[in-house]
Amino acid sequence: MVEDALARGLLTAVFALTAAWFTGHGIRGGSWADRVCDAFHVVMSLSMVAMAWPWGTAVPVIPQVVVFAAASVWFVLMAVLPPDRPSRHREHSDRGAWLPWLHVVMMVAMVWMLLAMPALHGATAAAGPLTVLSGVAVLVLLVSGTVLSVTATVPVVTGGQGGSRLPWHAAHVAMGAGMVAMVAPLLVT
């Protein structure tokens, strides 16, 4: 849960927008694999909204862990399979092989947050070193992936390549930044 009301409102807005955008992206088309990717992003965004609010603690943890663990495996497959098998949107491969791994990191971060948040609420010292160290690793990977997302977005904006790819890149930047904003406070409390 996010304690600060302004931060909670901003994060809710960010993740509600990414949920809406990925829903629209999935509806507009693409292969079945694209739709699975988009569906996982929608579920992740909605789960992040819930995590920001006090009522989010009532959402069962285990089903979410199962979904995000499955999503992690899915995105590992997307990272190691050739870009055309199964066929995917061009955005998934137009900025390098790192992007599917960012999705893996985001989904693993969801699993980590769901499992670590009960221990981390209250005092980081009570959580144990493994929880904190794994959280730091997750945070470093999230920050790195978000920076890569920003660097992939800049040429789209400055090079006049915008078009339909700009919102796609912006959605990934927003998701990464939002996740960093929710993971970092867990580690410094």
Automatic annotation (TrEMBL):
Pfam families: DUF5134 (PF17197). The keyword Transmembrane applies. Keywords: Membrane, Transmembrane, Transmembrane helix. The chain crosses the membrane at residues 6-24, 61-81, 101-120, 132-157, 169-188. It comes from the Bacteria. This is DUF5134 domain-containing protein. It comes from Auraticoccus monumenti. The lineage of its organism: Bacteria, Bacillati, Actinomycetota, Actinomycetes, Propionibacteriales.
